[in-house]
Amino acid sequence: MSLALARYLGQEPVAADGLVTRVAREAPEALIRAVRHAGLVLKPHSPRRVELGHAASEAEPVAELCRVLDLFASAHRERIVALEAHKSKLAELSVFDLLLYASLYAFEVLVPRDFNVKTPAPPSGANAQVAWDALSDLLAWKLAEASTSSLKLTDDSIGRSIARHLRPVLFESRMASAGEALRNLRAFHALMDAQIELNEFISKSADAFSYDDGIRFERRGDRLGIVDVDPAARSAWRRDGLKLDRLHGYWFHRAVDTYVEQVAADRATWMIGRPENAEANRLAWLRALQAQLRLREAYGVADEVASDSGDTVNLFRALLSLDLMSAFFLQDFLAAFAERVDASGDWRVALQRLAMDGLREGLQNRLPLTWSSRDSKVSNITGWTVTKSEPAGNPRMASAILDFWTYDMVATAERLQRNEPGLQPHLFERPVLKFGATLVQLPWVVAMQNNSTAAINNLRRLGQRRGQARDEARRIEPGLAGLLEKRGFRTLLNWVPPRGADDAGEVDLIAVLDEHLFVIEVKSTFMRRSQRDAWLHATTTLRKAGQQLRRKVEAVSLAIASDPGFCTMLGLAEGLIPTQQHVWIADTCIECDHQRFGGFLKISVEELLIALRDDRHLLNDHGGLLAGNYGVDEAREVDASESGWSLYPDGFSAERFAEVIETEAVWDVRTATRGGRSLQSADSKNVASRE
Amino acid sequence: MRHLGLWFYNLTNAPNGMAATNYYDDLFSRLIGDGVPLPAVIERVAGAYLDGKPLLLGKKKLTKKERDILFWASDVVKGCPPDA
Lengths: 691, 84
Prior knowledge:
heterodimer; A: 691 residues; Trna Endonuclease, Chain: A, domain 1; 3 domains; 4-stranded mixed beta sheet; 54% helix; B: 84 residues; mainly alpha; 4 helices; 5% strand; globular; disordered N terminus
């Protein structure tokens, strides 16, 4: 009922007279929890906030909560006012102008200066992801006010923008004519700072107040402090983030294994493109394989998907194209820029030289942002679609690939201006920005982004309403069933119980082995980046899955007891009833991992895959491939041997399988099961990729 | 209804065209009648609301606002014990 109360407090149109006052009197702690979960902290003008104020006299904790909410409201308002003031200084800029300043800002603040280290980092200590998010918000601000005509770029309009905003900063910075552009650049820095400050306030304070049950905000005078009340709950979010990082590594190692097989079968796949680019191209190939394997096995995505335009896209080629774009921008823009900063000690001089060198080397655009016509981009990508059967490439496929990664500025502006709800792509999810017939790219995003996450969220977040999404969700179940069958299970997919008063709905996957019965509910979503998103997932999809499973398990138990045909399908001999029951929610996303919903364990699909394939050694990078020290320590390679890491040293059994999942043995990094010495903890050296 | 001696359901809360009955109170009565314990009944009625049920009332498709009105005017909510 607390969640329902949070729903009430989060909406505005409906008032329930006396409800809040009554709950304040009878169950103040429940009300406080509901207020937090309702996100009321950022809705100071909601009628529910007024009701809460009226109820404050019922209980001191509620009165104190109101004081805390007032402090949050004041802090929120201050930040919005500051942001609006900075926006007003750049109100005249077009969307493209804004991206020019964003690109200058990025090369000054975000682009790493050293690419010879394991994790290149921004020189300013800034967080690139946080900056990209702020820029996405500023882009939405500009788009909401932009005329359609200003979003259809031409060579003329681009030329005018470059001449007014970019050229003075790069080439005329000591001249009086640069005054306006330099002022704008400083104003853009301040604007970014203000947007980041607001976003950080929302994510680290307001959302933490609302959705982090591991902390409590305490008021000290007119300041707020954070008190840890449940460290375990707090660390869950970080722990799930670390698991996500290790899963990226797992799929990369799987890609390496697959690539080795491909090269063994066809030596020609070793040399990709020109010799001088072969190494970078091989890495791009590996990253494309990494994402494809993950999308295919964990998300059920087919090898061909539909783009927004309805054309069919070969998924691997689409991934490869993006990874090749990343490799190109990394090498020819970011690393080249870093070399020039090293030589000159000045980011502006470095950008200047990069641009001039580009012009000298065949009139290539090496400005901090690039643009081209759609035809020209299709022509470039066509070269990346070359196959044996199509040695000249496939322009139609190239066109569909381009659509797959395109973020249409005009369409988004029109939606925002109509005040229609909808999802705004993150810059990395759709990195080709479409301004009419002109396509713009931000090298400093494309070179640094995680393309695997981009692909997953492009399909599963932005594309959740695609016609294929349902088929993809359904394809995960036979994949898991196939792995279970290889281990000796009898499985039953998508069993529909007889309809009763308490309709249970379809049971995704049932498996039986050794008197152990497994009932698995599969959920397919996307990768979440905020605690708010994770909380919403927990209280909607996962909560519902727990409730559904209760009815489904009852239906399965009833069928085993009373339906001989059902027992036959599961290979259960007459009178043989499984003695052990394991009921799990298997979700494509990692959030709330190993928590219980409706009493049932929530795990990830990927954990199930790894447990059934018995290849957890690939989670641990013991050869040092990802750490950048491959082959340095031979003893570590010995430790990485598969046999030492088997989850089933005494052979596979249903009982051990259940134990492996329930004890999180897949994620264990401390000891090999046989023959290995103690291994170092990977958790201690990884840094969570999420805020 | 068999529970808690609650306030009388105010029919004037029913939106135009809605039947003068309450889905959530009916669900409550059915589950109590089936012998489901009270805490579980309340959880399931609240769960139905959170899951966006009912979709229809008779032949009329309910809006979110109408569902909110129905739920918050129900006797289940009005009589909900503090520990729920």
